[in-house]
Amino acid sequence: MERQVFEKLEEKIEQAVKKMEALSLENLALKRKIEEKEAVIQNAQAQLDALEEEKELIKGKIDGILQKISRVLE
Predict the structure, then answer these.
(1) Handedness of CA 8, 13, 16, 18 (dihedral sign)
(2) Mind listing the pLDDT tens digit for each residue in 9-49?
(3) Shortest CA distance to 36 belongs to which of 28, 25, 49?
(4) How many CB atoms lie within 10 A of CB 10?
């Protein structure tokens, strides 16, 4: 009887260890996915920042052209 109890306990411990190992692997895979997504987000943010700078540069040039036109028309 006691032997069966220890065997069941050992079996439950083995199941728990296997589950922990599986969860650890899954956790590692999820961390890698997060790192990949963060890299994609950083790249997209860098592209967005570059486009914002370009937009401001173009806006400044257009404002300059409009001021020149206004001076000519006055």
Answers:
(1) negative
(2) 999 999 999 999 999 999 999 999 999 999 999 999 999 99
(3) 28
(4) 10
pTM: 0.66
Torsion of CA 65, 66, 72, 74, to 10 degrees: -160
39 residue type, one letter: A
Give yes or no for residue 74 having a pLDDT over 90. Answer: no
73 or 27, higher pLDDT: 27
**Chain-centre distance of CA 30, in angstroms?**
11
CA 21 to the chain's CA centroid: 25
Residue 38, CA distances (Å) to 6, 31, 34, 35, 45 in order: 47, 10, 6, 5, 10
What is the residue whose two structure tokens read 């950083």? 42
CA 23 to chain centre: 21
